[in-house]
Write a structure and sequence with these properties.
Mean pLDDT: 87
Number of strands: 23
CATH class of the largest domain: Mainly Beta
Radius of gyration: 26 Å
Domain Secretion system C-terminal sorting: 243-301
Distance between the termini: 29 Å
Largest sheet: 8 strands, antiparallel
Helix content: under 10%
Number of domains: 2
Number of helices: 2
Strand content: over 45%
Order of helices and strands: HEEEEEEEEEEEEEEHEEEEEEEEE
Organism: Nonlabens dokdonensis
CATH superfamily of the largest domain: Galactose-binding domain-like
Keywords: Signal
Shape: elongated
Protein name: Secreted protein (Por secretion system target)
InterPro entries: Secre_tail
Length: 308
């Protein structure tokens, strides 16, 4: 019996989860518009009034679906993913508040994230020369923690005698030179690079703001937000400091404890949750929510533990 108890004690000391912290690129938001209408986003007018996907007339519409089923599209788009995308044409006369359409995502959690990037596909499907007027536009914007909307992508019609005369101002200097056609263009925006500073906060929203006059057909697909967050390598052993029990509900015991040490507890995104100095071989965790955490002592590798 004594041997059995000793074995259990040794097992509880060695059954720990250890790891090294690194960073990896992960998706914080992704919508290919294949699910239900307004799944994790909203369609509204400028004042926030709800807008539904609808055929106003045969050639005036805001739709989510397969473009091959829409006979009003002049030239079918290529390069989109899945079966569905969002498409529109000549909706300005049907929407209040200046005729603009707003597609706004739900809140996206960016706590602890860095290197935020936004991706999307865009195309135009009317190939009549000078069909897109200067008043026709599409703008990509972000908002953090309820603050101001900031433009990071800007597209507009340019009267120049060309077909597919819809262009991006790809360096945001007021000059529209990057042409958009029915071959949908993959857009990639590194927000830190564009604005020369790290974009950070707690909650982000992405907004697509557009205006479409007579026969100005536009299509969008695959809106994605990515960022760099903490990643975990479970294959690297830690030999200096261990914690037990793991999972724990109230107190973490610290093995190999010799003297008081400063520590920090992080959540999965790398956000600091608490810090302190353990004056004995235990740390109070009863106020933490249930979940996975990382414990980092000064001059030691991080340790993964679970609060139950």
């Amino acid at each position: 019996m004594k041997k059995h108890i000793t074995t259990l004690a040794l097992f509880s000391l060695t059954f720990i989860l250890t790891f090294n912290i690194g960073y990896s690129q992960v998706q914080l938001y992704a919508n290919g518009f294949e699910g239900t209408d307004e799944d994790t986003y909203n369609l509204t007018t400028a004042s926030g009034s709800n807008v539904d996907f609808v055929n106003f007339t045969a050639s005036d519409y805001i739709l989510r679906g397969n473009p091959a089923a829409n006979s009003s599209i002049d030239v079918q788009p290529t390069g989109f993913s899945g079966s569905n995308l969002i498409m529109w044409e000549d909706f300005d006369g049907y929407l209040a508040d200046g005729g603009q359409l707003y597609l706004t995502t739900n809140d996206i959690n960016i706590s602890g994230a860095s290197g935020i990037s936004v991706q999307m596909k865009i195309g135009v499907t009317n190939d009549v020369a000078d069909r897109y007027e200067a008043s026709d536009f599409l703008t990509l914007e972000y908002q953090i923690d309820g603050g101001l909307w900031v433009t990071f992508g800007d597209f507009r019609g340019v009267i120049n005698g060309n077909t597919f005369n819809f262009y991006e101002d790809d360096d945001l200097n007021g000059t529209y030179t990057a042409q958009i056609t029915n071959a949908m263009k993959q857009l990639n925006y590194d927000l830190d690079v564009i604005f020369g500073t790290q974009i950070s906060g707690s909650l982000m929203k992405i907004r697509i703001r557009a205006f479409s006059g007579v026969q100005e057909e536009m299509v969008i697909d695959d809106l994605v937000v990515e960022a760099t967050v903490l990643s975990i390598d479970d294959n690297q052993p830690i030999t200096n400091i261990e914690v037990y029990p793991n999972p724990a509900s109230e107190v973490l015991r610290v093995s190999n404890w010799k003297e008081p040490k400063e520590y920090i507890i992080y959540n999965q995104l790398g956000t600091q949750i608490s810090k302190g100095k353990n004056t004995e071989n235990k740390i109070d965790i009863q106020n933490l929510k249930t979940g996975l955490y990382f414990l980092k002592f000064e001059n030691s590798d991080p340790i993964k533990f679970i609060k139950k």
